[in-house]
Amino acid sequence: MAAAREPSAPLVLFGEEIRVDPPLPELLAAVQTRLVELRERYGDVLPADERFEILSEVLDELDVALETVRAARERLARIETRLTLAFDGTLARLRTAERDLGRAS
């Protein structure tokens, strides 16, 4: 049985530290909720004197979400590369073992 991981301890999978607090889906859901709240509060038409402040707040929310998604995608791409190399190497070893079995028969 695996040892319990402390909440503050980093989670490292296939050599990549994975952000777990908050989990990506929760972070994106929170950003989406804040954006919906802003839209419900202010609607589509903003008064000129509030437009800059509100749009700046929206831009900040979108920037956080975009930065988080890009970082996750980069980590996943590195994990995919490692897994692909491991898969290809294992497949090559399996084929070699298969050939060796065929010769031994």
Key features?
two-stranded antiparallel ribbon; mainly alpha; 105 residues; rod-shaped
Annotation, overall tally of beta strands: 2
Name the overall outline. rod-shaped
What proportion of the residues form beta strands (DSSP E)?
5-15%
Could you tell me the radius of gyration in angstroms? 24 Å
Helicity level, as a percent range?
over 70%
What characterizes the major β-sheet? 2 strands, antiparallel
Following the backbone from N to C, one meets helices and strands in this order, namely EEHH
The side-by-side strand order for the widest beta sheet comes to 1-2
Low-pLDDT stretches: none
**By helix and strand content, what is the structural category?**
mainly alpha
Q: How far from one another are the termini?
A: 41 Å
Q: Calculate the mean pLDDT score and round it.
A: 87
- Determine the number of helices (DSSP H or I, runs of at least 4 residues): 2
Structure write-up:
With 105 residues, the protein is mainly alpha-helical. 72% of the residues lie in helices and 6% in strands. It has helices at residues 24-42, 48-104, and strands spanning 11-13, 16-18. β1 (11-13) and β2 (16-18) form a beta hairpin.
Give a summary of the structure in a few sentences.
The protein has about 100 residues and is mainly alpha-helical. It is built from two helices and two strands, in the order E-E-H-H.
